[in-house]
Sequence to fold (102 residues):
Amino acid sequence: MSIDALFAFFRVDHWGEFWWVIVGLLGQLMFSMRFILQWLSSERARKSVIPEAFWWFSLAGGVILFAYAVHRRDPVFILGQSTGLFIYSRNLWLIYANKRAV
Fold:
């Protein structure tokens, strides 16, 4: 595959934008892993469960996607990811607060 074909496939016109698309894809992969993890954990437990790692994948993917959204200057994407980051962080805070109390 030529560089021109690669750039056309990712809809970019220079290497800097290409690497930002790779960052965005990495963030999306991290974000998607949370669903796979949750599904496998639920299958193993034979009931619906949300493991702690779900929130860590959510946070990692959300931070990467937020950075990508800021780079793209997409206000809808920025708002969506920033809201999620608050929720993921709060859930992790509640998990650790509960562990400390126990």
